[in-house]
Recover the amino acids of this structure.
């Protein structure tokens, strides 16, 4: 079994790999924001008992990390001197949202797929490279070198990007209806290929079956789930395969939280 730090690195490209972010994430999962009161020693004991996999942290380093979280304004504590009441601050929650993918329970869809193409001059190759990263960040999948696909209308995002990088008129947006096709592929076949939905669905299925056997604790369960969710484009529910297991995996994780 992988060490906790390795799992954290896999989930977030190293962003949660730091001890500070790792403990912040653990506090988030264990419901520290509910106002549970403990002495620092008993909290550390609960920390180790709840997640035996976190053997990298001893009591001293745990206290040091908590102090760092306080100083950075990511958590706050009560004024009671005999107890340690921890609550994740708004700033702390914002950090978690930035580094941990969130399952989208609502995915409104207008019934179209959008094709994004661009013809940016070589002299502006820096903007072209940034645009590719921008498209990928916002859930677009590449069909060809300068042709991308997304089920969510990217018009506003593209207009803002074009204005900011002074490439107005170089990006073309077109749309396909639900019954459309690209080449010989139907929309559903195309989505399965470019977003690798079959492989992703298999990972969800394996995760569910594995957890039924192993009964991992909440921390490990969530870490493994987030590792899959990070690669999930979270397409509109209408476009997902009929046997999609992503929702089952989400309910499994929610059941332990």
């Amino acid at each position: 079994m992988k060490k906790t730090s390795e799992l954290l690195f896999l989930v977030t490209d190293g962003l949660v790999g730091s001890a500070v972010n790792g403990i912040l994430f653990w506090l988030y999962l264990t419901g520290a924001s509910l106002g549970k009161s403990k002495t620092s020693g008993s909290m550390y004991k609960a920390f180790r008992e709840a997640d035996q996999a976190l053997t990298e942290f001893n009591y001293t380093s745990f206290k040091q990390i908590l102090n760092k979280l306080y100083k950075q304004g990511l958590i706050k504590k009560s004024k009671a001197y005999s107890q340690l009441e921890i609550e994740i601050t708004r700033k702390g929650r914002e950090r978690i949202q930035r580094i941990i993918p969130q399952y989208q329970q609502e995915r409104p869809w207008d019934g179209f797929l959008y094709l994004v193409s661009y013809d940016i001059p070589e002299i502006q190759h820096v903007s072209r490279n940034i645009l590719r990263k921008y498209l990928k960040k916002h859930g677009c999948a590449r069909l060809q070198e300068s042709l991308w696909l997304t089920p969510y209308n990217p018009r506003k995002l593209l207009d803002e990007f074009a204005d900011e990088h002074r490439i107005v008129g170089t990006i073309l947006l077109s749309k396909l209806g639900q019954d459309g096709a690209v080449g010989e592929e139907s929309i559903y076949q195309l989505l399965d290929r470019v977003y690798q939905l079959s492989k992703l669905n298999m990972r969800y299925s394996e995760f569910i079956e594995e957890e039924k056997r192993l009964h991992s604790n909440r921390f490990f369960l969530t870490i493994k789930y987030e590792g899959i969710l990070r690669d999930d484009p979270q397409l509109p529910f209408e476009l997902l395969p009929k046997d999609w297991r992503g929702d089952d995996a989400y309910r499994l994780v929610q059941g332990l939280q």
Observations:
- The chain has three domains: 4-99, 112-193, 197-255.
- Strands lie at 37-38, 75-77, 84-88, 112-118, 141-144, 147-150, 171-177, 181-182, 185-186.
- Residues 4-99 form a domain with the Arc Repressor Mutant, subunit A fold (CATH 1.10.10).
